[in-house]
Amino acid sequence: MPYQPRVAILVPAPDYYETWQPAFARKAAALTAAGLIVEPRVWTDPGDLSGHDLVLPLFAWGYQRDVATWYALLDRLERERLPVVNSVPVLRWNSDKAYLAELGTRGVAVVPTVDVAALDQSGLDRARAALGVDEVVIKPAISGGADGTHRIAPSAPIPADALGQRRLVQPLMQGILTEGEYSLFFFDGAFSHAIVKRPASGDFRVQEQFGGREADWNASAEAQALAADALAAAPAPPVYARVDMVGDAAGKLHIMELELIEPSLFLHFADDKGAAFGRAVYAAI
User: Fold this and answer.
1) Domain at 6-95: CATH architecture
2) Which pLDDT tens digit goes with each residue over 155-180?
3) Which of 139, 147, 180, 215 could form a disulfide with 198 if both were Cys (CB 3.0 to 4.6 A apart)?
4) Residue 214: pLDDT band with limits 50, 70, 90
């Protein structure tokens, strides 16, 4: 019988609040079909990983809530020279959305962003002035699942959880209210599929836990080119990637974020149901 490589997928702790098992099953099925043996390991305490041919942080959900443990894990993976996909430099770079500024300096269209070290009213006013808008969205620089993300109307106060904290301030992109947020998926650099995520009525967040819903989307050549330009800025080519983008009031697309750590891949929307994902991971061993 041919050798089957062993892959450790990092998953949340048993008491994690979101349901991750169905998505894990889809990804595990794609990897198993590609000839890999899959084993879940809790990301906060994964134990000895030396016997695995590859470590995948695909379900390190909640790392934004325990940043010190997350960075310590990255240091350990690097120190022990463990085979990780995506690579540790890519994971570290993608952890903090400061990378958006780097994309901007490279000429990639990103959602305009002001990074405020300790948010207060004067800092928010300056950010609004710099962006030329009254209504904004604020979010932590290290975030996931819309944690700590708020839409702030012109006269609304700063939410208590954001006061004095480092926050990214962005304009409310009108496209997310009218068309939704687009996600494009790439495996080993090749485009696989795309979806559009629309928020529930009265909300701006597209995540499922806030009532968001997804549908298949036929990504334009413009969208695919923008995504490829953004991914080219990563420290190394990512094996798997999700690129989120949104249109402005005129319909021009801007990068919202790159998801290179633990993205939902929506493999059930892919024509091949994840076969390209499985092949890409296998090829990385």
Assistant:
1) 3-Layer(aba) Sandwich (3.40)
2) 889 999 999 999 999 998 887 778 88
3) 180
4) confident
**Domain 114-172 = CATH 3.30.1490:** yes
Q: Tell me the CA distances in angstroms from 162 to 99, 112, 144, 172, 229, one per residue in order.
A: 21, 19, 15, 17, 32
Structure tokens at 108: 């990639």
Integer angstrom CA distances of residue 246 from 32, 117, 172: 34, 25, 10
| CB-neighbour burial class of residue 149 (10 A; exposed 0-12, middle 13-18, buried 19+) | buried
Work out the average pLDDT over 119-140.
93
| 175-272 shares the fold of 114-172 | no
Question: Pseudo-torsion of CA 240, 37, 54, 266, nearest 10°?
Answer: 20
Task: Give the bridge partners for 40, in sequence order.
Answer: 9
Instruction: Quote the mean pLDDT of the chain.
Output: 91
In contact, 111 and 149? CB cutoff 8 Å: no
Quote the CA–CA distance of 247 and 264 in Å, as a whole number.
21
Q: Which CATH architecture has domain 175-272?
A: 2-Layer Sandwich (3.30)
Beta-ladder partners of 139: 168
Residue type, 149: T
pLDDT confidence of residue 207: 66
Q: Any idea where the domains of the chain sit in the sequence?
A: 6-95, 114-172, 175-272
pLDDT one-digit tens code per residue, 134-160 = 899 899 999 877 678 898 989 889 999
Tell me, what's the pLDDT at 7? 97
